Amino acid sequence: xxxxxxxxxxxxxxxxxxxxxxxxxxxxxxxxxxxxxxxxxxxxxxxxxxxxxxxxxxxxxxxxxxxxxxxxxxxxxxxxxxxxxxxxxxxxxxxxxxxxxxxxxxxxxxxxxxxxxxxxxxxxxxxxxxxxxxxxxxxxxxxxxxxxxxxxxxxxxxxxxxxxxxxxxxxxxxxxxxxxxxxxxxxxxxxxxxxxxxxxxxxxxxxxxxxxxxxxxxxxxxxxxxxxxxxxxxxxxxxxxxxxxxxxxxxxxxxxxxxxxxxxxxxxxxxxxxxxxxxxxxxxxxxxxxxxxxxxxxxxxxxxxxxxxxxxxxxxxxxxxxxxxxxxxxxxxxxxxxxxxxxxxxxxxxxxxxxxxxxxxxxxxxxxxxxxxxxxxxxxxxxxxxxxxxxxxxxxxxxx
Amino acid sequence: xxxxxxxxxxxxxxxxxxxxxxxxxxxxxxxxxxxxxxxxxxxxxxxxxxxxxxxxxxxxxxxxxxxxxxxxxxxxxxxxxxxxxxxxxxxxxxxxxxxxxxxxxxxxxxxxxxxxxxxxxxxxxxxxxxxxxxxxxxxxxxxxxxxxxxxxxxxxxxxxxxxxxxxxxxxxxxxxxxxxxxxxxxxxxxxxxxxxxxxxxxxxxxxxxxxxxxxxxxxxxxxxxxxxxxxxxxxxxxxxxxxxxxxxxxxxxxxxxxxxxxxxxxxxxxxxxxxxxxx
Lengths: 400, 279
Known about the structure:
heterodimer, A: alpha/beta, CBS-domain, 4-stranded antiparallel beta sheet, 41% helix, B: mainly alpha, MetI-like fold, 85% helix, 0% strand, globular
């Protein structure tokens, strides 16, 4: 059990008589039936999941699905009705008021949909808020707030007031305010939803960049699948208070658990989600530098029905040999592939989105090599494979 | 029917008697403190020549409101009052209003905060405020006499009761109006209740609280005039005298003086409130 946070069958019932609603829920009644019969609102029902250290978990769902309630239960801004929330083994639901306060001060940083900046404090005072509450001495407070603002915040606006800033800048302040505390867990409640699309994309990129450096445990609430797919190491899909599906972006897209997930997923632009590694074909035959001459290479090409061949040496990709060059070399009696290898080839990492592959393939008649950081050849993409994969993806996720 | 009458009035009278007899130490202490306060305030204001004080008030009006027009109005208005020979009663009215407002705020702000933060207190305090605000103002004069006798202290007592409700209500409203997301944000950083109150809720509620104080001052001014009936001196006393002696000239002059004081106090407080909002 090395998960950072483990949530075990967490429930939240809004109303004065949660017991009755709980019983009905366990008997299988739906949210609407319970509201009709008991007047109790079901916030979240039987939610269990875990979050690992350093990962971004996106909790996604439409409004009313319970995602915001869930994230507020984690730091008990909303008191869960029953269930467990284990933070490194300590049950948060059992903490006393004082212990909870300390936990909030030291472990959680929260970013809100509508920024929730304090309008009567200037930017730097906003960023300092958490430290002030923690009674950090003024000088250290100022330093850390300054550092956080420099990292993500709008520079040069320290003495302005929130109302003078644009939405994007305000949310940078919101982010800086949470980061100034250096918490290990970030709760981000639709943090970028109120921003316009361009700014939102920038903020997403920035968050990913920050995450590479900081390795926080991030729980990100979103109603936007594109955002979830971009940010989430794993995604949890919620509906009516329940978790409908949990998995990586790939798993949810290629294997939607039910009709609801499928409908959610339909709108996604497949080319954005698919990456080089999902599309690439296994390198069928690869000529080895050390042993093969042009004759072997030609034979391999003939076997595979292709007109060019990647050349590897000691596991590293060296270049490509075309059939024409191999024939010429054979005629000249040249036995060494090294002399005819073209090293000028396009190499791409496996996580390249399919979108970015089109321009590469249009201007380049030879196939693309998908390589990892050590230059190992992982796979090959030619125009045909890309188009085939995309059309297949569309039919898989279309109205089946 | 006489036998069936529920003795509401009688029981209240009994309560008043009880307080007068057994809590005279408290009413006496209150008398002492307030009387000292009033005479100190009046004496120190009367120590200066009227023209000096008029300049001083105008300067304050300018400083607080940042408006030249208001300072000019204060200068001319108070000058007119001096000219009408109503300077001394005006000073005593201002002193009564200031002290009543101060006491009303000392009691009202904490009650307002309490009712905003605690649902039970809210449910108890709000109906009491409803009663306090609908009860005819004159009724408050009645218990003031057995408690404190005729004079300014009784006037202050009834003025405080009459003028306190808006201070409580608007403090409560101001705090409750703080957006939920901001309160959540303060909570999410682990603020204690008092940190949340002093760092977020009170600063956010300040403009509304200022509006409440403004109303309290206005109500206090109107009640201080009525309280002339139980022997509060001041401008109200002048009006009262004019009624009894049928002197319309004196009555109107005193009335105009009250209006001038009211306008000055109201505009200054409004400007202060507006500045709070803008900051």
